[in-house]
Amino acid sequence: MARFPEGFLWGGATAANQYEGGWNEGGKGLSVADCTTYKPNVDKGDYRALHGITNDDILASEASTDTHQYPKRHGVDFYHRWREDIDLLAEMGFKTFRLSIQWTRLFPTGTEEEPNEAGLQFYEDVLTYLRSNNIEPLVTLHHYEQPVYLADHYDGWYDRRVIDLFVRFAKTCFEHYGHLVKYWLTFNEIDSVFRHPWTTIGFCEERYPAEQREEMVYQSVHNQFVASALATKLLHQMVPGAQMGCMLTKTTTYPLNCDPRNMLKAQANNRENLYYADVQARGHYPQWIKNYWERSGIHVDFGTNDEEILAQYPVDFVSFSYYMSMVDSIDAAQREKVGGNLATGVKNPFLDTSDWGWQVDSDGLHYSLIELWDRYEKPLFIVENGLGAHDTIDEDGKIRDDYRIAYFRDHINAIADAIADGVEVMGYTPWGCIDLVSMSTCEMSKRYGFVYVDLDDEGNGTYDRMRKESFYWYQRVIATNGEELDWGM
Length: 489
Fold this sequence. Notes:
Strand order of the largest sheet: 1-2-3-4-5-7-13-14
CATH topology: TIM Barrel
Distance between the termini: 24 Å
Helix content: 25-40%
Shape: globular
Largest sheet: 8 strands, parallel, barrel
Radius of gyration: 21 Å
Number of domains: 1
Structural class: alpha/beta
CATH superfamily: Glycosidases
């Protein structure tokens, strides 16, 4: 029996703010991502240094046209190379490609009454070309790309008026691209609001009193929940048969040992992570978060029909990113730490780590798939997974990334094991399938792709594309629907 269902959506994932470039072309406005700086010397475990931003930082970025300090402005130039890139995806045999539509390319400030025609045409061309290559687009509406204007003039997602502005953006996307796109996602890693609020909700913490910030973040994410439900309602009305998903950073946390206090600590971490998908997939808030608000004196303003809207328009499927698992302990402060895409955590003695100190745990993906399926009983889609590593070009011109192949082989086997355990999995889109700019540090040296981009951390290079060894391996995996994972190893 085949390990993967017929029609399984093999592909890869990107985000426009890290990939697209063309930041000041075609009428595009400034996004929150265009304000994030290159951080070559920041301690990777210092999350505040990686993601914090001051008011002065924002003002300086808005006045600057620099692309070296702000590398997401150039990305890897998909804006001009999209045909070439899609041809490479088609050569690999992609069934789907996850990309995002930049709000600021359609509505430069987010407040315009009519969309920008040049932006509309760009995505029309890209999506049409994907379709002509038999690649199913998977489109994220909000992938860390909020207009800076809304952050400056509306307090980001804290202002309820932004719900209507986002719904107008979503409606425009459905009107123009509904005939090209079947699968949509509302908010990328919506659970990241406290980890990096500027990126996720346009919230510069320095601008507000410390005692108000937690409440403001909870209000902002509530407004995103409502916007997600309204966008789901609109999609079902405008594009019958289309599906909307939520997107979660799956932060699976293990207890360090079976000390009951560590068990409870890990359970609390996982519960907090899953609450964001709970609201979007189940259609209501879990009682524990309401109890927490009451104990903490936090007031979240619900509109008259908000709870009804959330209940009536849950998402159709649950998507998530998975890179690593975490470990927690009541004595974490005294334990050896490792880094990660989330924050530092207690080192797991049973796991190896990547070049960036992330714990590699393919079994954790199997575990996470079962946990999510049992909790929601909705189809699951792994829309980010991958290994960031230093890649080198050998003297013969080849890029031998066998470490990446081994990583993917183990994680794809984990997906197959979860499917055998009864989990419904729609597809798999490894992150950064073509090398792109890092989300946190804006580096290029942390590479994820099957395709190498000739660009270094300082912005030097030709932007030319090169196939890595993993390109040919993944091509074979897709061609055999996941059956031949040891080919070429």
